[in-house]
Design a protein that fits this description.
Blueprint (H helix, E strand, L loop, with lengths): L1 E8 L9 E4 L9 E11 L1 H7 L2 E10 L4 E8 L11 E4 L12 E5 L3 E3 L6 H5 L2 H14 L12 E5 L4 H12 L3 E5 L3 H10 L3 E3 L5 H7 L5 E6 L3 H11 E9 L10 H5 L3 E4 L4 H5 L6 H14 L7 E5 L4 H12 L6 E5 L3
Parallel strand pairs: 9-10, 9-12, 10-11, 12-13, 13-14, 15-16
Antiparallel strand pairs: 1-2, 1-4, 3-5, 3-7, 3-16, 5-6, 6-8
Length: 338
């Protein structure tokens, strides 16, 4: 089968950083689905895993953790799907990724593809929707059905992939959303997605929040550069409020003000359930199905903003390069094989 992989971890400008390869088609066992991949999306995790380092893989390593496709075959323990079903999923970072014609994936982290979306648009949804959903409704303990309606939520990195779907999920739950953006096009993007207010994350946050008539915020989601924004968000979080981050820190995060406020800081990592095969692993299946229902009902819109074709090493290198520039709005998707 066709695939895009790497054996060395190189700068993205090097043509060997991602290469077209031929691999053996896998066979499903247990609760695995064998999915014929029709479209994929690229995320910051891809560039982080691929980042240059002194390591050589004995066999091509396949990246990619956002896909949509058709179930080709199922393992003997599969209960949720059958061959021919159209699916979408983010995958498991401990297993080969979706940058291949066929992929094995545990059915418990797979959802039924939204019927209203084609494969390319569906591939843009899983990783970011899982991340934002878990961040808001599990880590921040906000109520998905609206019990926290009217409370304030600041999203740092509103125009990125997770922020783009996160704004929409937060508005579905009735929250007052303040999103950060720094350019006219990204500001317009987050407004179109439903953000109630927009602030610039390159400028001090408190004066901008106070200009909106607010002193403290009920919840804060760090979807961009935890180190850069830590001091500002700790200042803004209300006493007994909650902060969630998806971006690992490089420097120590001062905790004294968090203690004074009895505030909570929690991490969100969407691969936790699949990495550790937690007893509630199937929650991601239910979550994706719920998101698909919202999309088909017109409550959430697709966040794909660029589609490349076909799926090959050259186009994936271009997508990685764009992500590494740090100015992406929405999601980058690739569809079809040569």
């Amino acid at each position: 089968m066709k695939a895009v992989g790497l054996t060395r971890y190189l700068p993205i400008d090097d043509p060997e950083s991602l290469m077209d390869v031929e691999l053996e088609k896998p066979q499903p066992g247990g609760r695995d689905l064998l999915v014929a991949v029709k479209a994929i999306a690229v995320n910051p995790v891809d560039t982080k895993v691929r980042a240059p380092k002194d390591k050589i893989e004995p066999e091509p390593k396949v990246l990619g953790w956002d896909a949509a496709g058709i179930v080709e075959a199922v393992g003997p323990e599969v209960e949720l799907f059958q061959p021919g079903d159209e699916v979408f999923y983010a995958g498991d970072i401990t297993r080969p990724g979706c940058n291949s014609e066929f992929q094995l994936i545990d059915e418990r982290i797979v959802g039924a593809k939204p019927q209203s979306l084609d494969f390319a648009k569906a591939a843009a949804i899983p990783l970011t929707s899982i991340t934002a959903y878990e961040a808001f409704f599990e880590r921040l303990e906000l109520d998905v059905d609206g019990a926290n309606s009217g409370e304030t939520l600041l999203i740092i990195g509103g125009a990125g992939g997770v922020g783009s779907i996160g704004i929409q999920l937060a508005k579905l739950a009735g929250l007052t959303v303040i999103a950060t953006a720094s350019r006219p096009e990204s500001t317009e993007w987050v407004k179109q997605l439903g953000a109630d207010h927009v602030v610039n994350h390159y400028e001090p946050l408190r004066p901008q929040i106070e200009a909106l008539g607010m002193k403290y915020l009920d919840s804060i989601a760090l979807f961009n550069n935890t180190d850069q924004h830590w001091e500002g968000v700790v200042d803004l979080i209300r006493p007994q409020g909650r902060i969630v981050s998806i971006v690992e820190n490089k420097e120590p995060l001062a905790q004294s003000m968090m203690k004074t406020k009895s505030a909570t800081f929690v991490w969100e990592f969407m691969y936790t359930r699949s990495m550790f095969e937690t007893p509630d692993m199937i929650e991601q299946h239910h979550l994706l199905n719920r998101v698909a229902e919202w999309i088909d009902a017109g409550k959430i819109s697709c966040t794909a903003n660029q589609v490349l074709s076909p799926i090959n090493a050259a186009n994936l290198r271009e997508a990685h390069k764009t992500l590494e520039a740090g100015r992406t709005i929405g999601k980058i998707v690739l569809e079809g094989w040569d």
